[in-house]
Amino acid sequence: MKTWLLTPALASVLMAANYPEPVASILRENCLQCHTGAAAQGGLDLSTSDLALQGGKTGAAFRPGSAEASLLVARVVGGSMPPGRKLAPEHIATLRAWIDAEKPQRAAVTEADVIPLFQMRCVTCHGKRVQEGGLDLRTQASRLKGGKSGPALVPGKPEESLIVKRIAAGEMPPPKKLFEAFVRPPASEEVDTLRAWIAAGAPPAPVRPAVEEKFSAKQREWWSLQPPRRPEPPVLPGAGGRNAIDAFLLARLRQNQIGFAPPASRMTLLRRAYVDLTGLLPTPRQVREFQADTRPDAYERLVDRLLASPAYAERWARIWLDSAGYADSEGIIHEDRLRPQAWRYRDAVIRAIERDEPYDRFLTAQLAGDELADHRAIANPTEADIDRIALTGFLRLAPDGTYSPANGSVAERMNVIADEIEVLGSTVMGLTIGCARCHNHKYDPLPQRDYYRFSAILQTSFDPYDWVKPTERNLDFALAAERDEAARHNAPLEAEIRRLEKRLEALPKEDDKAKPEADRLRKAIADQKAKLKPKPDIRALYDMGGEPSPVFLLKRGEAQQLGERVEPNVPSIFHGGALRPYVPAAPFAGTSGRRLALARWLTQPEHPLTARVMVNRLWRHHFGRGIVETLSNFGRTGSPPTHPELLDWLATEFVRGGWSVKAMHRLMMTSAAYRQSAAASAAALTADPENKLLSRMPPRRMDAEQLHDSILLATGRLSAERFGPPVPVERTAGGEVVEKASKDQWRRSIYLLQRRTTPVTLLEAFDLPPMSPNCSERPLSTVSTQALEMRNSPVVIEHARYLAGRLLDEFPARPARQIEEAYLRTVSRPPDAAETARATAALARLEREWLAHLSAQKVTPPHAATARWHALGDFVHALLSSAEFLYVD
Length: 889
Hints:
Number of helices: 37
Number of strands: 6
Strand content: under 5%
Oligomer: single chain
Radius of gyration: 33 Å
Distance between the termini: 71 Å
Shape: globular
Largest sheet: 2 strands, antiparallel
Structural class: mainly alpha
Helix content: 40-55%
């Protein structure tokens, strides 16, 4: 019967004929309205028990003989069905009793029913890369062909089939593989299904026609799914703007009878530009140079200098690393194993940003750098060649504990892939693709089928059925010089380790007297091992070669519930529009071209999302709020753009300008909007209370890295060293996590070890985010622990005293000059007369109190110089903890 012919009346009659009472009445009164005919929600038609067993998009409505395993019971017990009310307990009990009393029915078994067993239990050892015993179990032809022991199965004769015999004997999977390959033995139900399939003659899976998704006009017309259209900037006579950005903003402001705030002072603008672009404060010398530059374009020249500085690349690389989910450890389990080579991705990002790599090329290298050129054919790679491969680490940054047997199952592998899709979707596309993993997206036109089509693009690199542990996936790519240097470094250490191990082995095993010596040797061995340099390689993503495992839609997102097979493709809402279709083609032998085709599809000039998402992120970091406030969600549950025409103009300008990120920075920072002050008039507070129209610049607190690095710069301890392995961190006796710095040289926070379980305490207090899997937009909190960290951290106190010592050395016996320099180095301005007078009095009082304290502590002798140093250190500490230091107007 064709369900689309059913009327509600006919469906009611069918229910009465197919279900016993009172089951028929319960379903008719509570379910018939939503689950009958062609418009049945979720494709589930409950008109007859056969249709209910056939099920919908999430599977069969019930399982005869098992109410606990039935989706219908789970939904009514959970309260999601019927919507808006909960079924009466006695009705739920009736449904349970009816299902439990139904006799289980076995439908015709086909290859589709046994594919989960082969995929989950077998192909790790009998698949693409490994075919133990010459046996490949991926296809029916290869199963019938068999391996060294003969065919794997004999259609119609399960007891004569080798695969059944081996499973029954406990030989497949081999016990040792349960640990080595992280597989699980098949459940009894799976073995029963395998027997039934073979007994039925091993019939193939039914061929289903390809399904092309259909969308309503309303779904297709959503603003972020339309290609950006370049509008003409409004013409506003006498508006006072400096570029097109101002024209768009002022047009909206004038509609509300307000305008921009007055321009910011030159010193405010100087500090704002430095912190925004470099993440650092200006030095006193840079302050004086800008004050002395009276040229009309002094500010524009300043912006150009900052964009050309190495500090700019380090600052904006940190912002990208948040979006990418960068970490130097795997996460997931308590061990939080380190990723010794992840830093190569960080360095490649810094270099790409420093040379203003066009964003389309930057993105292409991260998605498919290995498919741009065959690295296997490059004998003498340049730094650019190595960086191109290292950038593919973009899709290797999500938490990954699959090196551990407890976390290496197929389901856990699929979680890793899901996290990488989340990173790609949120960072590049501004779509919540992950919401379609278990069912159709509730709000956006993203069917569940599209999620698995999209994940299939990564299947040639991340094959959950032919998995490579993260610790074994790195590329050994022409790093001969580094390997030689590491070997020279490690040789004496390894010799010493062997010597210590021999001494340890020679000790009596049960002798308590030997225990202290054994403990000492074990510690010495551990210390030597900690000094070993890791094997130089690159944490890269690359095609594994060969035909990957097929990809299936997973019912309810469960790894064991394989549905229909899908092919790699981009979301179908984009099919048939202005964009070129996704067509993968291998650029050279040994790779599929799937990811390269995705990169080229994403970087089409007409793409609705790629340019919009990027310029919106840049805007947020300059103006405190994105034009679309939800940076990673341009869908229906995200925020609508406050200035849609401006967003489209910026996106098209970005593409027209060759995807230059520096050009976008320059455009935004030279606008009148960026140069206005934070002063809010009464009219602006009334018409624009949340500052969504940008009637003033919002004051912003420095983020964690800006604060950390600016403290180091202000106190004179910031190292200029760049690149290389991360600086280790350690936990002090007081529980604070700090970097292991050399005496007077501390590196920028981007170069510190980013271990998920031991974040640096100062950074964590000021909202350093956990990467789970990434962070599109950091939270901004104001909590007491931040003030306590600044007040009590021994590291912050040490930095303050270091600057105090420098001021005393540079300006001996000149307290007024010391005060002036302290202000310039911390808040980027000289003090006024009143501030100087207050500071002078405070220093004199502090010096007396410190002298008295040192005398009471019987410090011999209680030097006045020590008291003066401590007093000035307290003063500097107060400046570093002040709101003026922490906030940027």
